[in-house]
Amino acid sequence: MNKIIEKIVLSKDVKQYIVECSAIAQKALAGQFVVIRICETGERIPLTIADSDKAEGTITLIVQEVGKTTRQMGFLEVGDSILDIAGPLGTPSEIEHFGTVVMIGGGIGIAPLYPITKAMKAAGNKVISIIGARCADLLFYQDLMAAQSDMIIETTDDGTCGRQGFVTDALSELIESGERIDRVVAIGPAIMMKMVAETTRPHGIPTIASLNSIMVDGTGMCGACRVEVGGETKFACVDGPDFDAHAVNFDLLIQRLAMYLPEEKIADEHFCRCSSAKEGEKNA
Amino acid sequence: MPKVAPKKTPMPEQSAEVRKKNFDEVPLGYSEDMAVAEAERCLQCKNKPCVAGCPVEIDIPAFIKKIAERDFEASIRIMKEKNLLPAVCGRVCPQEEQCEKVCVLANKFEPVGIGRLERFIADWEAGHMTAEVPELPLATGKKVAVVGSGPAGLIVAGDLVQMGHSATIFEALHEPGGVLVYGIPEFRLPKEIVFREVDYLKKLGVEVITNFVVGRTRTVDELLEEFDAVFLGTGAGLPWFMFVPGENSMGVYSANEYLTRSNLMKAYKFPEYDTPIAKGKRVATVGGGNVAMDAARTALRLGADESIVIYRRSREEMPARDEEIERAEEEGVKFQFLTNPVAYHADGNGWVTDVECIRMELGAPDASGRRRPVEIPDSNFKTPIDTVVVAIGNSPNPLIAQTTPGLKTTRWGTVEADPETGRTSKKGVFAGGDIVTGAATVILAMGAARLSARSIDEYLKTGTW
Ligand SMILES: Cc1cc2nc3c(=O)[nH]c(=O)nc-3n(C[C@H](O)[C@H](O)[C@H](O)COP(=O)(O)OP(=O)(O)OC[C@H]3O[C@@H](n4cnc5c(N)ncnc54)[C@H](O)[C@@H]3O)c2cc1C
Ligand code: FES
After folding, report:
1. Average of per-residue pLDDT across B238-249
2. Interface touch A85/B253, C-beta < 8 Å
3. How many contacts, defined by CB atoms under 8 Å, are there between A and B?
4. CA–CA separation, B68 vs B6, rounded Å?
């Protein structure tokens, strides 16, 4: 169970895993996620289900190596298993024929954006995708996204790929060009989603953001994932992760995401020490 | 009355100074001689009021008699006829409100330490015997899905397999045990004990599937396609907040999160274990129940200099067990009674720095019979703190109710079930434990589970609803 059957390096620090997990594959819908734990001493982290295959009984997970757990996951190879996977969690994304939808993905956010884009396309929408990252090395899934989009715009902060600038620059131009937009879906760093919300707000374009708050159980049991939407406290893991971006308190989300930064550093250092100690043992 | 020692045989425990710095169990348990001495205090009353005081009707005088006779094997056998989890119950049951409350000795002296003896005999078994698997009846071929692996789920599953049915437990988390593993701290209930009990159930033939969120991974209706009946024992896992300003600041936890990080995820062993937790120096816990006591005492063990309990009524109304309140006091937990948080203040980064409380006074009794706390106008004051644990209560997680058409719930979010049979409004679906009663106790969950197991058995045999 939970065996990794394929592992691909998508970009610097971003890896894709296809994992055997039939029970979840049968049920997964766009916008849902799993919570995983990779070893007995491990923490529980949420990962979006980037794709699923009912017939094969597999799900696709995409991981950016940003901390201890994700780095440790990077050491897992084909044939290894992930200790625990629970899901599919969260309320699925709202998929309808809206008309024209603009799908915006920033960095690792492109992974969770992909299944929603696919579903939006299948629902008959005209899909315009804007995907961006800091630099070309961090961009991935361009072809997959292009295949699901009527038009795709790529941006990088440093101009190493696509047009230079932020995804919001491309979005602003699109809006100004007079393109009729019925819905925007944005997934990426909290600050990016905030900027997207600010860009669409004056135009009254319905905008959805998928909130990546810190989670523990992912089932509504702990409240670690609390976010404020329209002045009310919501649990991102069950009430979301998708919310009306114009009502989200992004500043609070940004603050709360920083809650364990000092500990994350300690965990990372501890991990480096332990793994180099293990290397040492092997070499001795 | 024959001559009996007026007080319970004391149980050795870690001193407050030592224990508040570690997560090891506080009471250390009886030796055989201590247990025999305590057992000899029992009057062996013919009418057995204690048995009537026990929600699962353990034959208390009988198991105690066998301890007095040093026939420990016979004692544990009597215990297990009625209670599959004595090591757990001996530690966490509120005996002072049940069996020990009605003990005849209690009229004059301290009651018999029934809980201590229960714990002794369970630990004795763990140390001296490999738990024997009783002979099971012929398989009936009927299959039951048990949702949730807290005390309710464990007991239902254990009883059903002993009636010849197959039982599969589906648990959302990665570890079975429910509140016993994620909520109640190691220093009150070592997880080892829960794992031992779960292992025993597995030996009996119970199948345990973890990481399975009913309502998401499969719905109750889908389970009903594969199983002949479903038992819901999913507890009361949704934490309440007060929705006061600043409550979403960093450093403010629900008790569920705080305790889950510490217990289930072993954050107290960070960075050996990966899950972090705020190791606050000044920790405020809001609430007055067992959960609040567990959180306030956990805070000390995580290194707090000060651990303050904020409660809106007075000590008398606190729902926590006296024993737990006393232990907390001994360890240095401070109590701020008749105060209630109205806001949390945070620094520029969003980390909580102060709790603002208002003073309360007690007015007329409310529905619960306890005097209702009323705010005293303009009595606000601030207390500097760096971590907060909100422990004001829990209700059932709505996930199952939302995904199960035909399952009736009350306006408190609990599932409607017949208290005698556990039958819900939906055919083939039974429920018991905190999901029905709202947050209650381990033993009540076990009692309800036992009744449900009986009526599930009946339903499986007759098919009538
Ligand atoms: C911190 C704390 C301290 C306590 N102290 C005491 C004490 O000293 N004495 C005492 O008697 N009682 C105490 N209690 C109360 C006691 O623990 C509960 O009353 C008891 O555990 C209820 O048992 P249960 O089986 O109904 O539910 P739980 O123990 O809550 O178990 C429910 C299980 O179901 C799982 N679940 C939930 N939803 C799903 C789903 N959709 N699919 C699959 N699985 C699901 C949960 O993950 C959980 O494992 C305490 C509670 C807490 C939180
Ligand atoms: S992650 Fe625990 S409630 Fe959302």
Report:
1. 96
2. no
3. 118
4. 17
* Residue A215 CA, closest ligand 2 atom number: 1
* Residues B249, B346 contacting (CB under 8 angstroms): yes
Is residue A200 domain-shared with residue A244, that is, in the same domain?
yes
Q: What is the DSSP string of B186-215?
A: TTTS-HHHHHHHHHHHHHHT-EEE-S--BT
Residue B75 has pLDDT above 50, yes or no: yes
Mention every residue, 6+ apart, whose C-beta is less than 8 A from residue B199: none
One domain, residues A32 and A151:
no
Residue at A209 is within a domain: yes
Q: Is B280 in CB contact (< 8 Å) with chain A?
A: no
What residue has token string 């004001």?
B392
ipTM for this model: 0.92
**What H or E segment, with its residue span, contains residue B309?**
strand B306-310
Report the distance separating Cα B321 and Cα B318, nearest Å: 8
Domain that holds residue A242: 100-257
* Residue A273 is assigned to a structural domain of this protein: no
A113, A209, B196 from A109: Cα distances, Å: 6, 11, 43
pLDDT reported for residue A278: 54
Contact residues of A toward B, CB < 8 A: 23-24, 27, 37, 41-44, 68-69, 83-89, 216-217, 219-224, 226-228, 233, 238, 252, 255-256, 258-260, 263-264, 266-267, 270
Q: Which ligand is nearest to the CA of B290?
A: 1
Query: How many angstroms separate the alpha carbon of residue A219 from the centre of ligand 2?
Result: 6
Q: Please write the tens of the pLDDT for every residue from B111-161.
A: 999 999 999 999 999 988 777 788 889 999 999 999 999 999 999 999 999
Q: How far is the CA of B239 from the centre of ligand 1 (A)?
A: 12
Residues A105, A64 share a domain: no
For position A206, which CATH number holds?
3.40.50.80
B160: enclosing H helix or E strand: helix B151-162
For B256, which of A41, A221, A259 is closest by C-beta distance? A221
Which residues make beta-bridge pairs with A261?
none
- CATH value at residue A53: 2.40.30.10
